[in-house]
Amino acid sequence: MVQLPPTLLDAVHERVLDGLDAAAPREEIARRVVAYLRNTSETTVSVEEDGTTFVITGDIPAMWLRDSAAQLTPLLRLVVAEVGAAEDRAVLVGLLSGLLRRQWQYLVIDPYANAFNRAPDASHWDSDDTNLDTPWAWERKFELDSLSYGPDLAWRLWTATGDTSWADEKFVPAARAILETVRTEQHHEERSAYYFRRADCPAQDTLARDGKGSLTAPNGLVWAGFRPSDDACELGYNIPGNHFLALALERLGDLLEHVAGQAPEAAEARRLAGEIREALQRHGLVDGPDGSPIWAYEIDGRGNHVVLDDANVPSLLGLPYLECVDADDPVYLATRAAVLSPHNPYFYSGEHLAGIGSPHTPAGHVWPIAKNVEGLTCGDEDEKRAVLEQLIRTDGGTGMMHEGVHVDDPSVFTRAWFSWSNSMFCELALDLAGVHREMAARV
């Protein structure tokens, strides 16, 4: 695994201390940020013989495309804010570039898989029946975020540093695989060969209709079999996933044009992004609890929708965090109010916690990921600090962030530690300390 430079971790500690006001538990927050960065690098990150970066989720020996990018995103914040010495930040850029090169390899192999093995050894979570069998895939649940996180991270890295070492010989083939998959899944019923079936499992771990998922009608959005939680979509068009995919395609267009010199593919990425954005406006809005428009969580193009939000990102709550919408957008604010209330069936409130959970974990469990996103999107420093303090108090005495925590008993949780959740704590703490991730675009 990878050890971050001690001088960098010292600089992080001092930067967080300096950036927090006296009302915050400054030393504890700074200590945890350093501990979580170290834990992520030393337990989940490895540099492979080919120079690429392989990142496991922590307690599962496979690399999720979504999770791996999210786990390393705090490193990009440090690069953007010029925390530490230049040579230390160069180490971080190398890890991020290596992760992207690894992701391109996987997307070329199979753009429908959500998680991959370090080597083609056919390791897997469960025995699944699907239309492509590759020994590289740990699991083949098709999720839109698998196509989105890589291009988005590459764009952020490029705009922050000018680095293009991630644009190797696999980048353009991976981009083409993304574009082809998007075009196909805009017409899932007519064009897609994808199916996913798993026997003897909960309904959320397999797809209905013999593996094709619930019936949808084409409307410009992109179909997905599974949510960011790895649970099956109730309806086929996941709205937050389509929001993030549209942004990622726009950014992929920038990369294809200005880095790879592929003008036709760049134009196609932007065309598809435009179609998705138009479809979101036409079909993704529903009446909220007070009659004002809010974003649905999923629709099917046949007149059906569900109003909820899930803790996992991309989420409706996290749309401003992903830079898909403005935090003060009226539709977002109405959506935020709805999903942070009992109108969301996965909003839980108890003695110690109130926030968004997931059907992926037991009822009554709030996810620290969602609490951190709540803080990152609120715009109020006192609220951000309150979230961090609440998460510190509800770690069950482990010193680590979990997947889900029971609202009435913090000693009851899922996953003793969850690397993605630790990284989200780092993001909120760094944000509160003024280590922001904004950067000027190069296009």
Topology at a glance:
Layout: H1 6-19, H2 26-44, E1 45-47, E2 53-55, E3 63-64, H3 65-80, H4 86-109, E4 115-116, E5 128-130, E6 137-139, H5 145-161, H6 171-185, H7 188-191, E7 196-198, H8 208-211, E8 237-238, H9 239-258, H10 263-283, E9 285-287, E10 293-295, E11 298-299, E12 305-306, H11 330-339, E13 347-349, E14 354-356, E15 365-366, H12 368-376, H13 381-393, E16 404-406, E17 413-414, H14 419-432
Antiparallel strand pairs: 1-2, 3-4, 4-6, 5-7, 8-11, 9-10, 11-12, 13-14, 15-16, 16-17
Helix pairs in contact: 1-2, 2-14, 3-4, 3-5, 3-14, 4-5, 4-6, 5-9, 6-10, 9-10, 12-13, 12-14, 13-14
Describe the structure.
The protein is mainly α and 443 residues long. The chain has a single domain (6-432), classed as Alpha/alpha barrel (Glycosyltransferase), CATH 1.50.10.10. Helices cover 45% and strands 10% of the residues. It has 14 helices and 17 strands. The chain has helices spanning 6-19, 26-44, 65-80, 86-109, 145-161, 171-185, 188-191, 208-211, 239-258, 263-283, 330-339, 368-376, 381-393, 419-432; strands spanning 45-47, 53-55, 63-64, 115-116, 128-130, 137-139, 196-198, 237-238, 285-287, 293-295, 298-299, 305-306, 347-349, 354-356, 365-366, 404-406, 413-414. Strands 3-4-6 form a three-stranded antiparallel sheet. A three-stranded antiparallel sheet has the order 8-11-12. Strand 9 and strand 10 form a beta hairpin. Helix 4 (86-109) crosses helix 6. The longest helix has 24 residues, at 86-109. The radius of gyration is 20 Å and the shape is globular. The protein starts with 5 loop residues before the first helix and ends in an 11-residue tail after the last helix. The model has no long low-confidence stretch (mean pLDDT 97).
